[in-house]
Amino acid sequence: MMKLFDAHCHLQDPRIFHQVPKILETAVDSGVVRFAVNGISEKDWGVVKQMGETYPSVIPNFGLHPWYVGERSPEWLTTLKQYLKTTPSASVGEIGLDKGTRGRTVDFTDQVEAFRFQLELAKELERPASIHCVRAFGDLLPILKDIGPFPAGIILHSYLGSAEMVPEFARLGAYFSFSGYLMSMKEQKAKKMLKTVPLERILIESDAPDALPKSDLASLFLIEGDDSVNEALERQRREGTDSPGAESLPLPKEMLNHPANIHTVLAFVANLLEMPKEQLGELSYSNAIRVFSY
């Protein structure tokens, strides 16, 4: 069976945390055998650390996500250093910059300051960093150039940047991780960008419980007890499953993503790269093992 590595997810998310044993069992049975679980603020680092201790398949990551920069305590950086030093298997993440709808509510100067501190820490500890970047690639590159290069690697998670920037990021040590969000990009643009990414730098992620891949309900792994799924199934029943188009009814906006759905992302990326999905699966797995083996 093909082995896959989920390079970025949030199993500590309160929406799915109570289901983790079942979620991991289903994902592992499907071939997803490693999960990089990313903390987002001081509030969840303890939970992430515990998950890493409880489940051998979980690689813990600790970081202050740009959305939560405004909620940081005065000791946040000391606490973060402590978590990283006492968890030798942990990497840094999720950190980054965000000028999207939600990111705009957080002071950008503060975001940059927190991001730089964490990047410098990752470099000093020789650990990879998982980076979130929304509408801020023009700000991200100069900071990475200033602090980098990053021999331990940086992971541009859910990468949706341009093809033109790929070589510059790659020179600094970047890996490019793809999630279900890639499926909302124009196909030609996504294909052009993917073709510029060095094969030894491609990662696949779920970003679960977010980034649900665009697919029909029948082909997706579902989170048990997800109310939005029950509503969609009810709608399908009402519209008559046999009626044309019932299979391709739009997925509910709030529907939760299962980490095992990286199989759908893998198939999509492999198709755009005109490569067998088994080959890409093997490649992305060995890339992830390389970046997460510090």
UniProtKB/TrEMBL annotation:
A divalent metal cation 2 binds at H132, H157. A divalent metal cation 1 binds at H8, H10, E94, D207. The keyword Metal-binding applies. GO terms for molecular function: hydrolase activity, acting on ester bonds; metal ion binding. Keywords: Metal-binding. The keyword tRNA-binding does not apply. Gene3D superfamilies: Metal-dependent hydrolases. InterPro entries: Metal_Hydrolase (IPR032466), TatD-like (IPR001130). PANTHER family: OS04G0577500 PROTEIN, OSJNBA0020J04.13 PROTEIN. This is TatD related DNase. It comes from Kalanchoe fedtschenkoi. The lineage of its organism: Eukaryota, Viridiplantae, Streptophyta, Embryophyta, Tracheophyta.
